[in-house]
């Protein structure tokens, strides 16, 4: 589904480069205007390459998909090259209307975001919020309901124990995989903030390496690690802190502090620019890739007849586990790097969490009342014979 009509305006390039390298006659006029303003071709290249760096590779690839779909629509509809940019509100309305019912409304909005960025890169006017477009976007939301993904399920302690049983924690790969899983779970972090996508896309400005700052402390008798992440989705290059706290004895087999230190012990002495969860291999250092990690763990979960999960499931599961044990939502929000309470939409199984929270509240009130009046806090120990 990626075929397009051949054109000198659209060279065969990776998806994340389409925003920059796919052009129209308008692009030519923009470059000419820059030359007339004294901006040399070399300076123009620097401008556009840095514009490209303002968005992470995943975003550029996603937006490149939107540009592809728009191009295919224009090819089918025999839209001339000059009319494709700036795209007027009628053309954009037709594009959206043609796509309604074929995918989710969120997908169509993302395609429009890609087109908008393409226009910005080419200094072209954008008309994507004019005329019928707002109403058509709502129609896309309604028409794409059947394409919406079901809610992501959470990773649970049962999932984690099944994963642990499948790993050799004394092997380099097993130690790295276990540490990554528990760091994502208890740190409520996105896998994309911890694991790299591919060796070719590894970047020390985006991917945290083993030379990052790792703080070690003890709080209320529990060991705590603070791992500095050089990049997060919400803060980008400002980075953030991934906080791992040793778990109580009853769940000591799922302790993230032990897992991370075990990984550092087995995969010791790496070069400074080695990714955080890289592991030793006979030929040198191998990268633990996000996709391969998910594939291997999904195989384990299927074999154990557990619910299938996705990358975000670690983050969801960790926040749910902490919530169910009474950690305040505000603390979970800070821990996972959410910037607002919108993270509540990730919580699942509230039918289990809410009664648990109410039960804890009742227990706390009973204990408080009993202490104030000199009674035992165990309700079963109270005598009602005198009443």
TrEMBL record:
InterPro entries given in the database record: DNA_brk_join_enz (IPR011010), Integrase-like_cat_sf (IPR013762), Integrase_recombinase_N (IPR010998), Phage_Integrase-like_Recomb (IPR052925)
Organism: Roridomyces roridus
Protein name: DNA breaking-rejoining enzyme
GO MF annotation terms: DNA binding
GO biological process, one term: DNA recombination
SUPFAM superfamilies the UniProt entry points to: DNA breaking-rejoining enzymes, lambda integrase-like, N-terminal domain
Record key words, sorted: DNA recombination, DNA-binding
Superkingdom in the source lineage: Eukaryota
Gene3D superfamilies attached to this UniProt entry: 1.10.150.130, Intergrase catalytic core
